[in-house]
Amino acid sequence: MQHLLNHKVPLLLALCCIPLQHVFASNGNDSVIPQTFLWIVLTMIAARLGGIVEKIGQPAVLGELIAGAILGNMILFNIMWFEGMKSNEYLHFLAELGIVILLFQVGLESNVQEMKKVGIKALLVATMGVLFPFVLGTYLIGPLLMPGLSHNAYIFLGATLSATSVGITARVFKDFSILQTRESRIVLGAAVIDDIMGLILLAIVSSIVKTGFFSITHILQTIALSILLLAGGTIIGGMIAKPLSKWLSIVNPGLSMKLGFALSIGFVFAYIAHLIGLAPIVGAFTAGLMLDSVHFKHFEEPEYVSELKHAVRNADPQIQQQVQNLSQVQQAKHIEHIVEPIGHFLSPIFFVMTGLAVDASVFMNPQMLLTAFALTLVAILGKLASGFFAGRGVNHWLIGWGMVPRGEVGLIFASVGRALGVVDTMEYSVIVVVIMLTTFVTPPILGSLVKKTSHS
Amino acid sequence: MQHLLNHKVPLLLALCCIPLQHVFASNGNDSVIPQTFLWIVLTMIAARLGGIVEKIGQPAVLGELIAGAILGNMILFNIMWFEGMKSNEYLHFLAELGIVILLFQVGLESNVQEMKKVGIKALLVATMGVLFPFVLGTYLIGPLLMPGLSHNAYIFLGATLSATSVGITARVFKDFSILQTRESRIVLGAAVIDDIMGLILLAIVSSIVKTGFFSITHILQTIALSILLLAGGTIIGGMIAKPLSKWLSIVNPGLSMKLGFALSIGFVFAYIAHLIGLAPIVGAFTAGLMLDSVHFKHFEEPEYVSELKHAVRNADPQIQQQVQNLSQVQQAKHIEHIVEPIGHFLSPIFFVMTGLAVDASVFMNPQMLLTAFALTLVAILGKLASGFFAGRGVNHWLIGWGMVPRGEVGLIFASVGRALGVVDTMEYSVIVVVIMLTTFVTPPILGSLVKKTSHS
Q: How many CB pairs under 8 A join A and B?
């Protein structure tokens, strides 16, 4: 071993010059992980400072998006430091985890029975909301604004414009605590159906581009699989969840098992959704929807509820009854309460990272920008029109605007189109700008609509 | 664009054969991330099923380690499926995040004034606990069991044996809710000091190996930096935290800001610790220790506390007083309560991943195993002896065993030694086995010691 050492003298001398922290960082990750801790802090600070927009009645998510966009474009002022965030894989992972947790929370707060009641309306809104932008984009605005492209390129453009991304709207509705309204239910239901339709549409347009026609078997298979997950998942899953939760509560009736049980179902559904080709968030939402407070009744009540009951054990019956009611509400909502901190920790990371992806330099190209503005207008009008198919007694504007945000699904369309050689770089950039604009324009408009509704 | 398409026909034909989910997975991560969701579920299931050991009075962490070790060695039965977990970067990241959160929680539950009271005892325990295994390993057991190595190789061996890793013990003490005992405080304090000593020791042995002597300036610098973080962090940080929390609570008095403020301080301290060369968990623990309930008094009280006060507003004074006391406890502990679900979600991932790293095939080499057993015995005896320096009125065995687990710090020593060409593969493997053994043997023994103490 001593002779080995002698051969390594140059290496050793080199090592002497390395500061201590680098000696410790024996492999690359040892440094990247603590650095990521700092990025997490930065997203948290950005998100919280962005939250100042709440003071002017705007949803906190808008502040998170803006804060992210500011950090992401500091490079324009020669501040390179934040570029490391964009390429940090762990942050992107936490962002994905965050949006899955958010939709799981939204599902938990939603009621499956109430969702069913608005099913037909949601189906109508979803169908029209896919149809209008698709037809307008493919046959009217595409050829008009971007002449000379192939018909397939217009089809992909139309498909891209049709796909709602529910993350933004769900977060806005959650920020304003209006997840229990009919409008919110219709939008959430329509967004799930929209995602399935997007999947079918992608299968159809991909087939047409690739072979000139499409296989009806494949389409039916896609529909069947999607329904199996969503309907089957809620029904069969609901049936399995009851005995499973009872058994698990016998193994360990505490908070850790309760949380582990709930999150496991959320993540498994997210994974299954991904396997089928749906967005993981659709799976997570379905899982949350399926889980009802009844699934957690065998677990221990929260410690403070027991303490509370003990504190009022000698009070008169009326107060005991009030405390009893309060306890029941606390017990029923306990699962939401314990998932909430995880959501508060992770979901802002998603929105800050979404803002971070905004590249302000694309706004320097006037022709492209004009095209993008026009397409955004079509994208918005198509969805607003769909809102009017939601029937009477609801705010059609709230529903229409709720369907406006495009997101990862639109990007998937554009990416597949690019991989197939149908969508060129210019068209891809335009699509990215449309997604940005719909993402940023929705929260403030939903905000003012909600304020107007609550005042009237 | 059409001509481009024609050139891509072979590509398109190839694409037709790819199942839908692969078309969607437009880049690698799109698949890895949902797959990671499934791994997270698996760690949660493994951790919770492992939790069955609680039924026989063992800490849950032991079950998590065993569950991980079982999954990690399924390859011996030709089940390859779980190998993907070992190489999943995101899981390793979540594990790191989990152990940082755990030590932050432990810090939050600890009281800085009470910690100071046991300071001298902790210093004695730490010093002896570093000295005994180092001297025994370097001058007695090393040359005896592994003859023919260089003196430097024995120095590294001794240094490796000296480094306590507090994660396991902290978790066991938390599992048994005995973080408020004097024994627990001494162990936690000693572990922090131990980590600083490890840092100094590494600097010394690295210098000796590299240059034959060591720079006293460098050592003093290391000590100064460490003290700056730990003492300075708690004092200066504590002074800044008060006005900062007040200001932040004005921006947003809600739960999200409260949590963001607390976690940000935790992660910043973890990062600073890493920069200095200390373990991030030492920083996170310090941050938690620094944060006192007084830092959160300006934030809103939890919703259920307000509801509770409202429910008993007409009760007689005695009950109102009881509820008032309960509310104050709830308000003070609220930050611990909201960090708890994040800990329950992430920290088992660390212990399952630690178990996963156990390679049972090393146990097939009898000579190496025998060496490892003997070294483990020395590693344990050295720490047990240090427990007797903790003064009167405490359980010395509990303290000694609390200091036994070796972990990442020992591995860092071994890795640096290997990078310097001093530690060979055989010695490295022996060290890994020693770490495994100390990790697995500690939880059950601490478990039975705690049970014995509470019975007597």
A: 289
